[in-house]
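Entry for the shared binder. Reason: the reviewer on the internal report wants the predicted structure included alongside the sequence.
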Amino acid sequence: MSKGLRRSPARSADRRPDAGGGLKKRPAKAKGDRPNATRALATKTAARKVSKAPAAKKAVSKSVSSRKAAATKTKQARKMAVRQVESRKTPSTRQKSIAAVPRVKKTQKLAALRAHRPVAPPVPRQPTIDESAALKAFERAHKEFSRGRFGEARNQFRLLLDKYSQVSEVAARARTYLAIAESRLRTESMLPRDADSLYDRGVIELNRGEYVAAQEMFERALKREPEGAHIHYGLAATRARLGSIDLALESLERALNLQPSLRVRAQHDQDLTSLRNDPDFDKLVFQPRL
């Protein structure tokens, strides 16, 4: 037997029996009536892209908002943690943390106030018993020295150095004055003894500009001759050069009382220039007493 061929249902469906018993073919569709597959696919793809675009935007906005929400939650959590730590701190710790914060303006104001604040002087150190005693002994010896009693001053300075040599500052000053006193005593031994020789020595020192030495010579001469008018006049000139105006006027008045003819000399003497602005000088020199 020969096997027959199986017809597909599609082919059988295409062929239909017509009224005359024959098979009719289905009329084929025209090419213009069929939809283009490529155009359909392109249209579907574009539609899908258009439909997907707002969905993608929505997804991105959702992710951004979720990130912002997460960051906000993280900040809030940190703030809560800091508050909890601050609440656990003691008051002293809080004060320290507040003080640790830099305050520039407050610091500048404090610095300005401290700059204008008067600094208290240091409290002087109180002297010891030996220092106080040494100072008193030095003052006694210095009085004798200033009076011209160099022999007595020398003895007191020597006693001071024997007892209080450990007081370094006072001892150093005492040694200086002791050397001066001994030098003056040696000079006295070499000086002349009479008043005229001392007066001449004073005039020499006055002309040399050694006014202190000249004053000393005139004073020594007056001790030997208290009524010497020329000696008083020389002493007035020396004191005027030293700037002792009152003492110079006293010596000049004494000299003019003893010897009035010295007024003519006093009117032109350059050594008395510092006395000319004093009204007492005019009374003494230019208005002779009757």
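Summary line for the report: The longest strand covers residues 15-17.
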